[in-house]
Amino acid sequence: SSESTLFSLINLIYCVVAVYFIIKGRALITNAEIKSQSSIMIWGISLAVITYTIGFLIPQVLSIEMTATIQTPALILTLFLGTGSVVWSVVTHKFLDITVLVRQSLVYTLSSAILVGIYILLVGQVDKLISSFLGEKTTIINIAFIVVALILFQPINVQLDNLIKRFFIKGRTDYRHVMEQLSRSLISVLEFDQLKDIIEKTLRSSLLTDRVYFVLFDDKLSEYVLQPSEDYSRRVIINREDYFLGGVNQLENPAFIDRLTLYTKNSPLYDELQKRQTRLILPLKDADHLLGFLALTDKISGFKYNAEDITMLGVITNQLVTALTNSRLYQDSLEKQRLSEEMNMARQIQLDLLPKSPPVSDTIHISACSHPSRTIGGDFYDFIPRRDGSVGMVIADASGKGLPAALMVTQIQAILRSEIGNSNDISLIMQNINQYVFEMTSAEKFATLFYGEFNPKSREFKYSNAGHNYPILVRADGSYEFLSAGGLLIGAFQGIKYEDESVKMGEDDLMFFYTDGLSEAMNENGEEYGEQRIIDYVTRNRHLTPDKISEGILADKKGFDSTDPPRDDTTLIVLKVKKGARLG
């Protein structure tokens, strides 16, 4: 019939164009490994299309009679070549993620079935409608309707396919989902090989990164080592004085390797990375030194890394630093003795996440300490230098105790450092942290958090308070005020806006930051230590150094509540402007 001939002609055109683009696409593949892996699949599909065209479409278009003895083997050969080549590539070369392949196939089948069903229903109804009006069938009108339906089939199918994917295929490249899954995986893994596998799988599945290379400091060798990989089985020892390592140490965030061209001269490490065609460098730094870095090649898809990718990679590297610290401490403990409890080891890990010492400045003197009530506490503090010379400081108290609180603390710390690295304003930093914590944790997980930045040139302190105990600003003359501007708890509600405020500090002015482990310490009579006792002690002893103030108030609290171990974590930060400190 004319309708069948038209269908066959359109399908013939589609097949010719499909084979052309398949072969043309293979020629554009630059990655030798991917080109080799895809060869059988591409040629198998192409031959399957050609076989189907010769056996079915061309005879239909040219009205050539083909017997079943010819068409049946052609059909079997078509199915064998097409499906066989795909299965061979997936199973033999792991060319595609089999779970994604199956899920995508199911989604496409579902969307196509829905659309074809609607299409058949419409064709039947339109045919009946036209026949009822004209009294007979009209082939031309039917053909016109078929052509319009074929033109609209693909764009409608794409939209329907995307709609169904939102329900059936989601989470693989979703930022929040990737972070949550990675955090859960890393928190319990202490073996380096497992960490390496988790990071590689995460980057390959979520970003489609082709290859990932690890350069890490080896404690036994006291040198950096380019770790073995799938394509390079030999590890490469890197001299600590390698110039390129110095360039990586200058980075605070992921950066393209092109940014480090000043450090490439006479660098064996750079030569090795060039040999591996790396594109992106992810520094791994803790508070003291460079642990190493990750080197990423281009994406398999050929697309470039975008801003969202870079942000996610920044958070991943911060979490990996924590995981590597955990791993190194675990390996050290195995060499000395088996720890009797996992929580004891976790406590050491948690303490190592805190700064070894507060920053030193000609303008201010800072004292900081944290005393957990259990093996791992929910309190934490940190100091982060900013590019403009100001000092960022955070004090927070995560809900709960033990490993859940520690996991939340590491997430907040990683996100905070990433946000600060992006040079965001304080109000936006707080807003983003709240949104991430809200989306990545369960409803009962939240934290109080205070973040501020002190500018030593202007002696201005800019801050925002997310439900934390009000820090106390004590002036040199004994007057005081609370730092209360901000917003609600971190992670409790989504979409919260946070205010920020600035205060000017003078000589001998001090700020006292604390967690509720101090104010809620309770004596045997059920009486709390309370905010007023804190104010009285700090104002009365404001002439002392920050260290003396911290030691004194902790001793005073111990005399008030002698419970050992204490009921709750206690964290203190005391910041005091030095006498004689000049502006600018």
Can you characterise this structure?
This protein is of the alpha+beta class. It is 51% helix and 16% strand. It contains 16 helices and 17 strands. A six-stranded antiparallel sheet has the order 3-2-1-6-5-4, with helices on both faces. Strands 8, 9, 10, 11, 14 and 15 form a six-stranded mixed sheet that branches. A five-stranded antiparallel sheet has the order 7-17-16-12-13. Helix 6 runs parallel beside helix 10 (307-336), helix 10 packs across helix 11 (342-353) and helix 10 packs across helix 12. The longest helix has 37 residues, at 98-134. The protein is elongated and about 105 Å long.
Question: What's the arrangement of strands in the largest beta sheet?
Answer: 3-2-1-6-5-4
Known CATH architecture of the largest domain: 4-Layer Sandwich
CATH superfamily of the largest domain: PPM-type phosphatase domain
- The value of Rg in angstroms is 32 Å
Q: Would you count the extended β strands for me?
A: 17
Tell me what portion of residues adopts beta-strand conformation: 15-25%
Using the coordinates shown, work out and report the CATH topology of the largest domain: Phosphatase 2c, domain 1
- Major sheet summary line: 6 strands, antiparallel
Average predicted local confidence, pLDDT = 82
Structural class: alpha+beta
Q: Counting H and I runs of at least 4 residues, what is the number of helices?
A: 16
